[in-house]
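User: Hey, my collaborator sent me this sequence without any context and asked if I could get a structure. I don't really work with proteins. Can you help?
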Amino acid sequence: MVESSLQILQKYWKYDNFRPKQKEIIDAVLDGDDTFALLPTGGGKSICFQVPALLKEGICIVISPLIALMQDQVRHLEERGIKAIALPSGIKYSELDTLLDNCIYGNYKFLYLSPERLQQDIVQERLKQMNINLVAIDEAHCISQWGNDFRPSYKKIKIIREIHPTVPMIALTASATRKVVDDIIKELDLFQPKVYRQSFHRDNLGYIIEDAEDKNYKLLQILKKHPGTSILYVRNRKKTIELSDWLNANGHIATYYHGGVDAKEKTKRFKQWLSEDIKVMVATNAFGMGIDKSNVRTVIHYDIPESIESYFQEAGRAGRDGQQSYAFLLKNENDKHRLNNQFIKVLPDIHMVKLVYRKLCNYFQISYGEGEQTTHEFNFNAFCKTYELPTLVTYNVLQFLDRCSVIRFIQRFTKTSSIHVLTTGNQLLAFLDKNPQYQIITKSILRTYGGIFDEEVSINLSLIASKAGKSESEVIKILRKLEDAELLQFTHKISDAEIIFLIPREDDHTINRIKHHLQKQNTSKIKKIEAIVKFTENKTHCKSKLLLHYFGENKSDDCGICSFCISKKEILVKPDRNRIQEDIIRILHKKKLSSRDLIEELKYPENLTLDILRHMSEHQIITINHDNKYQLV
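Assistant: No problem. I've predicted the 3D structure and written it out in structure-token form, which is a compact way to encode the shape of the chain:
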């Protein structure tokens, strides 16, 4: 008996029904139509190509830009008993040869490829021998120069059309403006595609933009008012640790997550957050893929993100169960300055790209016309130091060269150094008492990492150096001495990345071929920064309507639950100023309080309360004492 798409869904995913638009998209694919699926975060895009591929004879080719995303989807399929394989960059030719044979003869249902891998002759030759039933382009916005993560290599995907012209293609993305959608259809050469858009409107999600000079205080207010599970997004790894520690010190159960946390610890923390043993996950944008928790009550952006697309995707992880939820964005005057320094000032020009590429080739002694497919261990900080290159601009150059398939810049998101204490806690402390010169660094490690007495634990040397107020070389020196004293085992590797040269060295000729992409990338980045800043500063329109309009969707009614709509209601229902003043006097008769404590007790709009406090102070009804608390005159 031939199974239906619903039976496949129930058999492998244990869901009773499809989500909105999924069934229509699957039916279009099964009818052999080229299809475009624009579904917001959490809309279940992968099922739209995985279910029809399982119903058809043959193998589905999935083009994906991210190694981690490929591996995550392959793992999920294998857990369901479905044969899937990924061929990211960095696999040796002999292994690649074997894996491609497996795809032809081994009854695999899914083959995940990077767009760069698709360009290899061996891959193209083997694809000709495969019975391909569907081609899925994941994160399809990468093909458009106007997309949020443009990769020139995506423009070469349509070569698969030449190899298998009759095989249907499906493009999928969670964030694309109308301009990007049109560009994707054109670049992929989709034939009369069926386009399915799920509305980006979320009637249960309130977008709240908060002006906050003291973001930490505002954070505590939000978590107190909304005590459910939260994600707190921050800009860098250091901040995840600092804010996680600070929240725990202030009565909240929090942990942190970023690209540098080792895989075992990531899994542990993620499970603790899923089970709600931990309530707040403080994270960089590395915390995004595979998050399937429906009852996140708040997503909080501690800083303004670099684009509306990023903000919308991350904010959309709140309230997937349909219950009232909020996406908070905290901002102050420093944010625009930070955005400019972090994203605009560090955009490389073509001269910088040529310089870094030339230095990179010299660093690894690549001769002109050579180097293709050679792999090299790479210490990014040492490279920058050797040639006195600015780190942020250099990092952006390497990312650009990676996107343009000149090199593959593989960052190792696992710690490259580890320690295991071989003695007892008391013996170690006794040693430190006798050797105080080791105390600061050793105690910084003990306070940062648990379990080092029980097993080998990955460590971040730069973090330890920062906490101890020492240089990284001093930390390594002390750990070597502790190892010599047989107190611990210290494993240290000096590379934090890997560079694969994908094409022969040709210096300026190499870069001149891709320089037009650089200008487009820089212009797009600046426009996206301007758009997100404009969104946060707009005080005249519903936030939900602004977001929908950005993605080409028009909605006539205000949402009623965003920061603009709430402020509009507060204006319409004007609190009695005399009543608020009387309440302030009544409270201050009993005790002296700070403005924050008064706002907490009164529950009136914060700006209005502060305005009345200023008025009362000017008229000498109240005054501020030496403890910075208000009291009656």
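In plain terms: The first helix runs from residue 5 to 13. You can pass these tokens on to your collaborator as they are.
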